[in-house]
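ok, trying the design again with the full structure, not the truncated one.
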């Protein structure tokens, strides 16, 4: 490739620093320069400090700042990182996550879901602590050393559905993806008697191992959500709910593989335990319309078999 295409699109001036927002081959960058004295020549600005970001592609926008401050605040967002606010210390070069947008699971229509509804299924969403539906405190009460609230809330939601006769333990199916897959693994360990079938998509189930490895993408930024297991209190708290560490009386492909292997080693029944590895799909499943429908059909078939709504012998027929 030739020389990078550079362009500047914004400049912020502070008492002791100059901040330049630029693009290199289309990718935004932030460069900070320390202003030593008014008589220093302009060429001294050539030794700027670049702000590091965790994603290969992203968007970053400046926020309001005080002229006398050494803290640069900016908004950060990417295809795998929710909208976030960071404070960057221009003296130390350290970024601190100040706010990350909470995720709300709002009701939405999905045509393929009609296949289950036509068979008499009821679809429910559990709004549990750790989400953003009930405000900031609701979110704060489901993270770090309060993460287990997420799992106990989900179990309480399941018990409520059973108590109100919406379903029974023999017909209750649960589904979660990524961090939601961690939820599925955790509640299965805590209350295996409560659920008939479970779907865990790209599940984040080896929490301690992943959070101990800062070379894995997103690990260091996720310490704000889960905690840093290099600190004793977080290490043992994570161990108390990490599915891989609790299979006995988010996410690299090795995590669910390790989880399934341990489940198979310890299982004492003949229930279906299926590990499906998609090598041509992303974190949020396949992108094509028909490929997504095929994946939905596969999951629904698994659920129907688990509930004995269709016999296992029917799998070879259309």
């Amino acid at each position: 490739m030739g020389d990078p295409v550079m362009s500047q699109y914004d400049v912020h001036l502070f008492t002791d620093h100059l901040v330049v927002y630029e693009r290199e081959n289309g990718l935004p960058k932030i460069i900070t320069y320390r202003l030593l004295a008014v008589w220093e020549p302009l060429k001294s600005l050539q030794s700027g400090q670049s702000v590091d970001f965790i994603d290969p592609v992203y968007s970053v926008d400046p926020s309001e700042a005080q002229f006398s401050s050494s803290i640069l605040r900016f908004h950060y967002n990417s295809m795998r990182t929710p909208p976030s606010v960071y404070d960057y210390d221009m003296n130390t070069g350290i970024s601190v996550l100040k706010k990350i947008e909470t995720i709300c699971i709002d009701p939405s229509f999905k045509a393929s879901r009609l296949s289950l509804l036509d068979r008499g299924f009821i679809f429910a969403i559990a709004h549990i602590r750790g989400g953003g539906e009930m405000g900031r405190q609701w979110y704060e009460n489901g993270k770090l050393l309060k993460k287990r609230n997420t799992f106990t809330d989900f179990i309480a939601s399941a018990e409520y559905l059973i108590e109100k006769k919406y379903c029974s333990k023999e017909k209750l199916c649960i589904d979660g993806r990524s961090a939601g897959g961690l939820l599925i693994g955790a509640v299965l360990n805590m209350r295996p008697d409560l659920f008939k079938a479970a779907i865990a998509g790209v599940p984040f189930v080896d929490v301690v191992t992943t959070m101990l490895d800062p070379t894995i993408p997103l690990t260091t930024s996720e310490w704000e959500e889960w905690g840093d297991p290099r600190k004793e209190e977080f290490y043992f708290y994570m161990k108390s709910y990490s599915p891989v560490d609790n299979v006995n009386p988010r996410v690299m492909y090795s995590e669910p593989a390790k989880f399934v292997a341990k489940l198979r080693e310890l299982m004492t029944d003949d229930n279906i335990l299926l590990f499906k590895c998609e090598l041509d799909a992303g974190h949020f499943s396949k992108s094509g319309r028909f490929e997504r429908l095929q994946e939905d059909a596969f999951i629904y078939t698994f659920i129907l078999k688990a509930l004995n709504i269709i016999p296992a012998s029917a799998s070879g027929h259309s």
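Keeping the full-length input from now on. The longest strand covers residues 6-13.
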